[in-house]
Amino acid sequence: MRILYIECNMGVAGDMLSAALLELLDNPEDVITKLNSIAPEGVSVSAEKASKCGITGTQMHVVINGEEEGHGHNLSRDETGSQQYHHDHEHHHHHASMEHIAGIINAMDIPDAVKTGSLNVYKLIADAESKAHGMPVSEIHFHEVGTLDAVMDVTSVCYMIHELAPDVIYASPVRTGFGEVKCAHGVMPVPAPATSHLLEGIPTYAGDIEGEMCTPTGAALLKYFTKKFCERPLMAIRKTGYGMGHKDFPSANCVRTFIGESTESVGTSDLTDQVVELKCNLDDMTGEQIGYAMTKLFDAGALDVFTTSIGMKKNRPGILLTVLCRPEDREAIVPQIFKHTTTIGIREALCSRYILQRTETTDEDGIRAKTSTGYGVTRKKSEFDDLARLADKNNDSVL
To answer: Global pTM?
Structure first.
């Protein structure tokens, strides 16, 4: 299985992602030539080498009518209140609607799959803008020049992914940055409202660098293409790409991409998963109280809850409570641990686990059975509750 992995330790923007993908391709010069051939009139695309913190990568440039758009995408609002890409200098630009953007993309000489992907990514952006500002999508407009910049970022990424042809795309949790960003008509929180909508359901963190690390375009591209957000899976890496941003930070401002294949020991199925392990020590709760707490944690969405006997300070016997949950559920689980146990501290670890693929079937007697496969193993097990129900009905044994 061919895997594309996107590392977003410094956030993600459309131009950074396209630069990182360009480095994975065998024919980057031909790709730049192709992008310039499909670009709208007055728009040109180029790539050059750049260095951040001693790391060399590629930096993309989009020039519109002889002028390069500001990167980092400062945001402003026009007179309708909709969020816009705003040029760093004061210019008067026409506004482009979603319909106009669709016309630009459909006019490009690119495969239908690339057009479809580009349009769907832009629809995600328009929907997010609509939610952020309480306006119908039909009323969302973008500054025309900023739109051409973003359109080229989106179509470039979609085209390069089409050329790379991965079987699956994974990405790391996304660093968003924090604080506020100054705009032409005020100050916005980071991440920007539209970006926040796009990142819903995606694991993110602020990090320790103030500023906008993730743009709406970058968030939309990740949301559309990524199957799962996780640590880099077990894979044989064939090539690594570095897409450099236009700002300098204490850490290398880049998006890193990896292309490779899953190893033979994993096979062609998606058999790896990520779980959060939450632990706390308890020495002053009764068995009934711990049992109740376990029930509440399962109700809150825990994948598993179990206890282990341990020895604690002052030679006291105690209980180690372990809760497994999905990364996106930890914010719901942690308050429940504090609420239903006497602990004053919880330890957290992110764990990778190997899992078998599971399917469930039901026979004519209503007996559910789970079949697990992978790693050369196949197991089938009937649900005990269903077997017990059938045994009671027939006055028989479950053995």
So the answer is: 0.62
